[in-house]
Structure prediction request, 108 residues.
Amino acid sequence: MKKAAPFILLCVFFSVSSAHCESAAKGSYFRDCIDQKIEQCELKVNLLDSKSENLRSCAENADAQMKFYQQHKEGLVQAMIDEQVREKSYAVSYFLSKTYASSKAEKE
Prediction:
């Protein structure tokens, strides 16, 4: 039994260590996805001076989304880790869109 205790402690240490590394890697991936989403919004914001009312409306919505993602970036990353969002661009995009829509609905 005395010989098994160090082995068990070692196994626990490595499992905790690998979980921390996995969480850090996921966090990095999610941050990159949010940064890409912010860049996409920035491109749409350039349409604010458009003559088209629909394009201006789209640009205003993109501006609001961009500000939301910038202000809540770390909270969104942690929420995605907590909810075990898969590291797939479509899954992250869906989560971000859903979260933005629900925050927008709460304001209204």
User: Anything to note?
Assistant: The CA atoms of residues 67 and 79 lie 18 Å apart.
